[in-house]
Amino acid sequence: MATTPTGAGGLTSVPALLHRNATEFGDAPAYREKEFGIWQSWTWSETRDEIEALALGLIDLGLNEGDFVAVIGRNRPHLYWSMMAAQMCGAIPVPLYQDAAAEEMAYTLGHCGARFVIAGDQEQVDKVIEVQRELPGFEQMIYLDPRGLRKYDHSKLHQYSHVQDAGRAKIDELRPVMQARIDKLNYDSTCVMLYTSGTTGKPKGVVLSNRNVIETSKSSSDFDDLRQTDDILAYLPMAWVGDFIFSVGQALWTGFCTNCPESADTMHVDLREIGPTYYFAPPRVFETQLTNVMIRMEDAGKFKQRLFHYFMNHARKVGPGILDGKDVSLFDRVKYHLGELMVYGPLKNTLGFSRVRVGYTAGEAIGPEIFDFYRSLGINLKQLYGQTEATVFITAQPDGEVRSDTVGVQCPGVELKIADNGEVFYRSPGVFVEYYKNAESTADTKDAEGWVATGDAGFIEPDTGHLRIIDRAKDVGKMADGSLFAPKYVENKLKFFPNILEAVVFGNGRSECAAFINIDLTAVGNWAERNNIGYASYQELAQHPQVLATIKAHVEEVNVSVAQDEMLSGCQVHRFVVLHKELDADDGELTRTRKVRRRIIEEKYADIIDALYDGSSEVSTTTEVTYEDGRKGSISATLTICDAATSAVVTKMAAE
Amino acid sequence: MLDQTEGYVTADGRQIGPVVMEMKNITLRFGGVEAIKDISFDIREGEIRAIIGPNGAGKSSMLNVISGFYVPQEGQVFYKGAPRPQMKPFEVARQGIARTFQNIALFEGMSVLDNVMTGRLTHMKTGLFSQALWRGKAEAEETANREVAEKIIDFLEIQAIRKTPVSRLPYGLKKRVELARALVAEPSLLLLDEPMAGMNVEEKEDMSRFILDVNDEFGTTIALIEHDMGVVMDLSDRVVVMDYGKKIGDGTPDEVRGNQAVIDAYLGVAHD
After folding, report:
1. In this complex, is the C-beta atom of A36 within 8 Å of any C-beta atom belonging to chain B?
2. How many Å lie between the alpha carbon of B177 and the closest alpha carbon of chain A?
């Protein structure tokens, strides 16, 4: 391949890659953003000029080598450029979660001691100003969208374009300084620092070197044959390692184009307009899309419904086989093509998946029905397993070996081993340098030989070599009778029902399991509407007797399925409660990446958990809630506690 | 009372300019009913001026006088220093006055974008024929107008509903679309008739934010009618209070709040 140089020789930093792209395919689009209703685009050479202007402006403002530059905002080309500009100045970019509350931001900004902050808009600027007194290191802030900021005190505040203008004005004077700093960058210089979402305790700053980022980008791009002509949609939080690797690492390595949506609300329309060829989404996004399709089909005419279901049944039967290149009879193939014409094609177009060549999902387990739905349409959706500490990639599914219950084989360059307690360890060129200012945690996670503990328990299937993840290693426990307790395994099965948004299973050290359940307001609300069931609030809908009955049926179905597994049959849910509020990251119950924080939930809802185990039939509770702007309130409710039937344990599995 | 000659500086430091529109002894009758009785006040450049009052106080009639829709039987309206003659609505629009309505007046079957574009009509110069043929200047003109419309759509954060027919939108969003249509006309005076009526707290907060931003970003003079006192007091620089067609108070929100006549009008007084 002429456009994808092999070997990282000479290309040992982000600025070097940028320079190569600007010279080799300078006229190809590098970034697009929809603004004012039109896709605005920048070529690689324009991108380099923009970034250089900003970098010069930053040096002019006094940015030093080794400084941390926090970048906060939604996905916009200018903010990606900010990160690269910081690297050109020898500084270290630190993207932060834009939806974090001010005090969360104060912690991360204080921890890295960021001198410069580059913020997307007034909202982010306000948050930083609110906490700036706690940040002795903070000096300058640059904002992108000037709206509403005109009257602010501009002694420390600068508009992005003005910084660029200042940089352009002093180009002759400052360029040598910038070039000298770029020349000093090597494979081991720090490329970026990313904060973990903090499933347990405070977020940790993961330091990734140029080697981590470039080696990973290179091997993963090869693995999936990513091309310079590919398109991705950047809509996931910039603070997340995945977005950094896709929209900066792989984008720079292969030179493909990163497309930014107009706003968070327009993401689905923008997805359809761009039609990405390489697409990543957490299971939740796929779930929501499928739910929407199903809801809209319910409202469609009889003929369309029959057509849809007829061809979808056929797709489920042969679609995945065709995608994997297996033997499928000619008749079935012809019928599938007819379906493509009538149903699959238009549906993929509506979803924005017409051009997807490689699609990934990760972060959580995906429901088999959801996974198969997309694959049967001919979308090459695969799973990967990774974490920030590995610069994303640990395992991924190669084309043709895709299944919903594994996370694939190790990526090129990655070694895997399973410890005696079942915990998965890995070693790769992507392994992080350290946790910033936290040598203790670094030592706990990474041993002297470079093996990193994932914190997940899993095993490698002997015949296929695929890795299967059971649960977080520390969440795996023992029931009172000594049998294995793996809450996530059960929770995932529960969450595969569209009506259930979130589930938390308890039972470690107890004789039986109990669960908290959150209903999915979209799915259940739609069902209520169709059945003329009125409700005034989330709380009322959640406690509706028919809703409780539906959830009970789901739980019992899961119990039947759990009973099939000899090892985990003790994890059947005996009693459950449907919660009166959605678990929320603002209340600290979920991480910003929407993972359940068990300890906090256990403490906060101790009264409900007690009621689940003391046999009472209902419980009155008051819960504190935090609103988006940080104010607090409380809601009280009386919750019904439901019993669910459990299934007899199958001692020997029959066929499977 | 404030100094009436050269303008003033608001509490948050904005410079308010000279008088843009002045009402002098306006009296408006419908048959035997006197909707407005001998009212005088002015609107200054760059300020947010509110007209408040209980139901039936004559607020909407007053706004219609300002917009030129009603012609008062007595008194005169001065716009930019000169007495204003009787005008047709399109002539008012050309003078740089735009408004929204209490009961939303959008084209329900058209998309948000098309509705917003209608606000640009006064800025279109090419004829029906060239627009239909899409030749020459018509195309360039459409592009330029679309750009203005898109900037306002971005400003009011309604990108996600750009192509949605208005009939499918919830009430709060329709109000925002109406504001967008008024704004694309690039008015120097914007009249808002109960912009928050029927909204929930969150929608009111959003709308207040947008009104402040419009005033700040485009320097638009805004005259609004509202009966949510809390909102009015937060937003406006000066407030006129009306009751039974008469002006019972005029001044900054604080002055008005302390005015006994206003308190009586809102809370009622015991009749002996």
Report:
1. yes
2. 16
Residue B129: is its pLDDT beyond 80?
A: no
Residue A30 has phi, psi (to 5 degrees) of -110, -45
Q: How confident is the model at residue A6 (pLDDT cuts 50, 70, 90)?
A: very low
Instruction: With CB atoms and an 8 Å threshold, state whether A263 touches B217.
Output: no
Interface contacts (A, B; CB < 8 Å): 35
What whole-number distance in Å separates Cα of residue A557 and Cα of residue A178? Answer: 63
Collapse the DSSP code of A546 into the 3-class scheme (helix H, G, I; strand E, B; otherwise coil) and give the result. helix
**Alpha-carbon distance values, B259 to A141, A359, A513, B36, B229 (Å):** 44, 66, 66, 21, 14
B113, B151, B160: residue with CB nearest A266: B160
In B201-220, the residues whose Cβ lies within 8 Å of chain A are: 213, 216-217
Would you call B142 an interface residue with chain A, using a CB distance cutoff of 8 Å?
A: no
Band of pLDDT at residue A274, cut at 50, 70 and 90: very high
Report CB contact under 8 Å: A36, B12: no
Residues of chain A with CATH 3.40.50.12780: 14-278, 283-472
Q: How many angstroms separate the CA of residue A625 from the nearest CA in chain B?
A: 17
- 8 Å CB contact of B154 and A151: no
Reduced to 3 states (helix: H, G, I; strand: E, B; else coil), residue A506 is: strand
AA identity, residue A257: C
Question: Looking at the domain A477-643, which fold is it?
Answer: GMP Synthetase; Chain A, domain 3 (3.30.300)
Q: CB-CB: which of B13, B150, B213 is closest to A36?
A: B150
Q: Which tops the pLDDT comparison, A330 or B271?
A: A330
How many percent of chain A have pLDDT more than 70?
Answer: 97
What is the chain B residue with the closest CA to A38?
B150
Distance from CA of A150 to the nearest CA of B (A): 8
Q: Cβ of A151 under 8 Å from any chain B Cβ?
A: yes
Condensed to tens digits (0 to 9), the pLDDT of residues A404-434 reads 888 999 999 999 999 887 889 999 999 999 9
CB A571 within 8 A of CB A507: yes
A14-278: which CATH topology? Rossmann fold (3.40.50)
Q: Which of A36, A76, A235, A629 has the highest number of chain B CBs within 10 A, making it the mutation to test binding with B?
A: A36
Tell me whether 0.85 is exceeded by the ipTM. Answer: no
For A148, the closest of B150, B153, B216 (CB atoms) is B216
As a whole number of angstroms, the distance between CA A471 and CA A567 comes to 14
What pTM, to 2 d.p., does this model score? Answer: 0.82
Q: Taking CB atoms and an 8 Å limit, are A36 and B147 in contact across chains?
A: yes
> A90's torsion region: left (phi>0), alpha (psi -120 to 50) or beta?
left
Residue B157 corresponds to which tokens in the numbers above? 């954060």
Residue of A nearest to B148 (CA): A36
Which of A642, A643, A647, A604 minimizes the C-alpha distance to A623?
Answer: A604
Return residue ranges of chain A for CATH 3.30.300.30.
Answer: 477-643
Is residue B243 within 8 Å of B55, Cβ to Cβ? no
Q: What number does CATH give the domain A283-472?
A: 3.40.50.12780
Query: Confidence band (pLDDT; 50, 70, 90) for A198?
Result: low
Contact A265 B162 (CB under 8 A): no
